[in-house]
Amino acid sequence: MESQTVTCFVRRTPHDLYEMFWKPQSFPLWASGLASASLERDSTGWKAQGPEGPIRITFTEHNALGVMDHWVDLGEEGVVYIPLRIVANGEGSEVMLTLFRQPEMDSEQYARDVDWVRKDLGVLKALAEGEGQESEPEKRDV
Fold first, then answer.
1. What integer pLDDT is reported at residue 37 of this predicted model?
2. Are 60 and 71 spatial neighbours (Cβ–Cβ below 8 Å)?
3. Global pTM?
């Protein structure tokens, strides 16, 4: 699958940034593409209302490596894997989210999803740095 990694520099240490956002309950604060409202835990994991309907999400367990991967189960449409990492970059951190172009996506939809990820990472950056949500992420695609 075609992929694009969107990155964003954040002025926080990797440990501090990871601890701010690794919990599933933190994702709705910044990841509008994942959950348009809050996540709810049930007996089998996490569920949410995604932009296109109900979804189930599996998150990577807490770890020391800055890995925040998650798998979004869209039901009949399959499961989408989303690699998400926080790594050291000087005195701050680089947040890296890889978006895979799904087989049913046309180029325009994929481009919109990449832009959506950029905006979501901008919100994460603003929250982490204590700024207003108008802050734009530094655009450095890999």
1. 62
2. no
3. 0.85
